[in-house]
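Hi R.,

Here's the chain you asked about this morning:
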Amino acid sequence: MMPLYKKYADTEPIGTLCLGNWGGLEILDIEYGIDDYAIACFNWGTGRQQIRRHKIMYTPSGRSYIRKQGTRYYFDQMM
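And the predicted structure, written out as tokens:
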């Protein structure tokens, strides 16, 4: 299996969340199955960092989010 950093090195993000003046969180892909996963990374203008698979979770009210480094990032806040 190809490593994530090679597979998603040149792909366009499907969603972004601004976390500062120089960059933020990028959603690169969604893997659908019994449990859905998002491929996400940080990009601060120097290239993609920490490309990882994250399980998509839901709040009791139905908001979807991923957890990266202990912080919840909600999909309804991304562009």
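The first helix runs from residue 4 to 7.

Let me know if you need anything else.
M.
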